[in-house]
Please model this.
Amino acid sequence: MNKFRILLYVMLFSLVGCHPEGANVKQGLDRAAQIMEQDPDTAFIILENIQTNQMNEAQLAEYNLLCTKVNEDKNVHHSSDEQIRQAVSYFEVNGNRLQKTQAYYYLACVESDLDRKQEAEMHFKEAIKLATLTENYNYMTKICRRCSLYYQKNGNFDEALEMERKAYASQLMLNDSKDHSTTILSSALGMFGVLSLLLGLLWKKNRYAYAQLNTFKEEIRQKDTQSDKLMLQCEHLEEKYQSLQLQIYESSPVITKVRQFKDRNVLSAKIPSFSERDWNELLRLQEGVYGIVSKLKEIGPKLTEEDLRVCAFLREGVQPSCFADLMKLTVETLTRRISRIKTEKLMLVNSKESLEEIVKSL
Model:
């Protein structure tokens, strides 16, 4: 059935293409745009059968934008930016905000495929800025998620995480706007009921009140259903957020460097380099993913920066003998310090767990 529909479109637009003045070019573009989301293959066939030499500048810009969009939706790798740049040049001057948003968004997608990183990032940001002004939260969500994939592809996980947060916020705004529409509709119905009463239909008062009660119950049920769906979405996004944070943590060069201390030869005279910046990044990562620093300070407010550094290495399973010289201490001195951290600063004298086990359990 799907093949038959595509064949029908091919025959139809082949006939349209033969029209000497191209009067149906606009119809073809409108039809392709209409079915693009549901049936990109058919939209592609329609676009292929439109004669570009019959188009004016506005129609050519729309055509080029749709061609880029259909390739993006079909995950076809973009090999040229000629089409989309013509669309951008036109819509920059003559387009509305939504058309400019789409033009910059698909230009960024093309530039991403062409490995033009700076240009792609700039145009993704421009598309997000314009989408914010249009308050088109559905499109805003789409752009932010695509931009997040772009950042992940290039290893910029902090920026990717920020884009996921923006996409999540846009999704919430989209849900709120839908709920707001339902509220407006309900208010309008309520006002209609009041006007009906004022017109003298008092004999229907009891029936109306009963109907309103049922309507209210149905709205409550729908709200509960929407709340459950939103809760599931939140849980999914939270899991995705935590997974992305853990991925950033595990792939961090600082964490890799810390774990190298596990395999270090204790008798080696050479101490692996570990700068002040490395220490700060290690504590920042452990706080961001596990909340280690704030949890330790809540239990033991007297903990010093050096104490936190010791706990950070223990959290990664590095034994005192492997990093004592990094702390400029003997193994025995570091071991005594670890004991004092547990008993005197964290006040866990009666705990049978080691400090390493305590830190890992936080």
Notes: The first helix runs from residue 2 to 17. Residues 254 and 278 are 6 Å apart (CA to CA). Residues 186-250 form one domain.
